[in-house]
Amino acid sequence: MPILWATSAGREPSTELRRAIEQGCGCAVEVVAGAFEAVQAFEASSFEAVLGDFPIDGWSAEEWVEQLRRVNPAVPVI
C-alpha cells in the first residue's frame, strides 16, 4: 500500500520514522517536499492515502486538499 507524505523542504521525516511507519503498516512511504510537488506526484502515481504535514510552502490545507480531490476524490487525505 503506497502512501504519499507531503511536507515542507527541511521538515522531512527522519529515516527511522519513515522505516517504522513502513514496517508497522506494511506500506511504502514516498516523501515529497512541497505542496505543488506532492500534487504532481499524486497525479503521476497511485496512492492509497496521503499525509499532509502542514504548514507547507504557503498553501493552506484547504487549498491543497481541494487540488488532491480534483485528481482523485476517493483517496483519503490526512
Structure description:
The protein has a three-stranded parallel beta sheet with strand order 2-1-3. 41% of the residues lie in helices and 21% in strands. The mean pLDDT is 92. The radius of gyration is 12 Å and the shape is globular. The protein is built from three helices and three strands. The longest helix is centred in the N-terminal third of the chain and has 11 residues, at 15-25.
- Whole-number radius of gyration? 12 Å
Strand content: 15-25%
Low-confidence segments? none
Distance between the termini: 15 Å
Largest β sheet strand count, sense and barrel closure: 3 strands, parallel
Task: Summarize model confidence as the mean pLDDT.
Answer: 92
Helix content: 40-55%
Number of helices: 3
Number of DSSP E strands: 3
Given the C-alpha coordinates, what overall shape results?
globular
Structural class by SSE content: alpha/beta
Strand-and-helix sequence, N→C? EHEHEH
Output the strand order for the largest sheet.
Answer: 2-1-3
